[in-house]
């Protein structure tokens, strides 16, 4: 995080990585906005970002935007 902040020079940063990385930043309250694209397919086993998106509603507003392709975009921003 420190290295990313230095490289960003005060500008916005994006977080990439796996579920555990995102969860760590969410749990540390270091995330201001989130955009998650949910596709209606099952890939097998994997880690969940959350059990329910409602877990984030105490800290984030949420918009759900469906698309014609079947992908649902979940947009969260800090309260």
Low-confidence stretches: none
Overall 3D form: globular
Whole-Å distance between the termini? 22 Å
Beta-strand residue percentage? 25-35%
The main pleated sheet reads as: 3 strands, antiparallel
β-strand number: 3
Structural class: alpha+beta
| Portion in helices | 10-25%
| Average pLDDT taken over every residue | 89
Element-level helix/strand string: HHEEE
Radius of gyration: 14 Å
Strand order of the largest sheet: 1-3-2
Number of helices: 2
Task: Give a nutshell description of this structure.
By secondary structure, this protein is α+β, with helices and mostly antiparallel strands.
Report on this model:
- This protein has 79 residues and is α+β, with helices and mostly antiparallel strands.
- Helix content is 20%, strand content 25%.
- It has helices at 2-8, 19-27, and strands at 33-38, 60-66, 72-78.
- Strands 1-3-2 form a three-stranded antiparallel β-sheet, with no helix packed on it.
- Strand 2 (60-66) and strand 3 form a beta hairpin.
- The longest helix is centred in the N-terminal third of the chain and has 9 residues, at 19-27.
- It is globular.
- 1% of the residues are buried.
Provide tags for this entry.
79 residues, alpha+beta, three-stranded antiparallel sheet, 2 helices, 3 strands, 20% helix
List the helices and strands and how they pair.
Blueprint: H1 2-8, H2 19-27, E1 33-38, E2 60-66, E3 72-78
Antiparallel strand pairs: 1-3, 2-3
């Amino acid at each position: 995080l420190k290295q990313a902040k230095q490289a960003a020079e005060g500008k916005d940063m994006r977080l990439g990585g796996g579920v555990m990385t995102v969860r760590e930043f969410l749990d540390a309250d270091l995330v201001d906005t989130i955009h998650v694209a949910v596709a209606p397919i099952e890939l097998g086993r994997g880690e969940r970002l959350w059990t329910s998106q409602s877990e984030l509603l105490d800290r984030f507003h949420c918009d759900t935007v469906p698309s014609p392709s079947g992908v649902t975009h979940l947009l969260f921003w800090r309260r």
